[in-house]
């Protein structure tokens, strides 16, 4: 019986390792294709309406639901991976949907979350955990600070220890230093656009040690 359990555990571990290798190859192929593709689908930047720092923070904190579409890239010293990004989040209902797909529309990762329980579907198999960051990393090898990103995407601090540098003229966030899960993250913001009278960034650069995450958004929906 003990030997049988060991075999089952070994098979499960080998399955995850094999799947991670497949996803890594798929991401690498996508990065090459994405690098060759143009950015014609990215909306041109629109003039943003001035709001004081305090007014913008107040308005952004009221946002309970949002949806974004765009591209995301993970860049490390010896590895570059990217995907199309769809992310829908509802804070009031504690639900979210996250999908990463290849340039050709092939599904790489599909996540659904409901009240702290996260389920990722990959190649027809479901994997569940309450620790989303660890679940994504164990299945794909990607580091994605999901909980903090809910704040960073809107130009908000994740904790009281975080620090934001604002533009002197527009008073929009330019750089954010954030502390998340024992690490220091540097977030840079570019190309703001008004979305429902709230100025939101459409380009982000997120750095932590030798990892850089780049996000380019085609669309925000509130």
Summarize the structure in short.
The chain has helices at 2-36, 53-61, 132-140, 146-152; strands at 65-75, 80-90, 95-101, 107-114, 117-122, 125-129, 163-166, 173-180, 183-195, 198-208, 211-221. By secondary structure, the chain is of the alpha+beta class.
* H/E topology pattern: HHEEEEEEHHEEEEE
The largest sheet is:
11 strands, antiparallel
Measured by DSSP, the beta-strand proportion falls in: 35-45%
Structural class: alpha+beta
Q: What's the overall geometry?
A: globular
CATH domain class name: Mainly Beta
- In the CATH hierarchy, the architecture is Clam
Q: What is the total tally of β strands?
A: 11
Number of domains: 1
Low-confidence stretches: 1-18, 25-44
Quote the distance from N terminus to C terminus. Answer: 54 Å
CATH H level, superfamily name: Lipoprotein localisation LolA/LolB/LppX
Q: In percent, how helical is the residue content? A: 25-40%
| Mean pLDDT across all amino acids | 83
The total count of helices amounts to 4
**Strands side by side in the biggest sheet:** 6-5-4-3-2-1-11-10-9-8-7
- The radius of gyration computed from the alpha-carbon positions, rounded to a whole number of angstroms, is 19 Å
């Amino acid at each position: 019986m003990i030997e049988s359990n060991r075999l089952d555990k070994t098979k499960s571990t080998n399955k995850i390792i094999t799947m991670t290798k497949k996803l890594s190859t798929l991401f690498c192929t996508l990065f090459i294709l994405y690098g060759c593709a143009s950015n014609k689908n990215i909306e041109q930047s629109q003039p943003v309406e001035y709001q004081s720092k305090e007014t913008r923070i107040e308005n952004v904190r009221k946002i309970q639901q949002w949806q974004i579409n765009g591209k995301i890239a993970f860049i490390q010293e010896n590895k570059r991976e990217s995907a199309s990004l769809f992310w829908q989040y509802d804070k009031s209902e504690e639900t979210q949907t996250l999908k990463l797909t290849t340039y050709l529309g092939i599904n790489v990762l599909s996540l659904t979350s409901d009240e702290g329980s996260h389920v990722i579907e990959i190649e027809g198999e479901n994997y569940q955990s309450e620790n989303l960051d660890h679940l994504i990393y164990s299945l794909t090898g990607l580091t994605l600070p999901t909980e903090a990103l809910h704040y960073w995407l809107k130009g908000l601090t994740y904790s009281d220890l975080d620090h934001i540098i604002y533009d002197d003229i527009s008073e929009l966030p330019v750089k954010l230093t954030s502390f998340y899960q024992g690490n220091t993250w540097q977030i840079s913001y570019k190309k703001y656009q008004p979305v429902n009278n709230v100025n939101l960034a459409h380009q982000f650069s997120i750095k932590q040690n030798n990892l850089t995450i780049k996000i380019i958004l085609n669309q925000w929906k509130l």
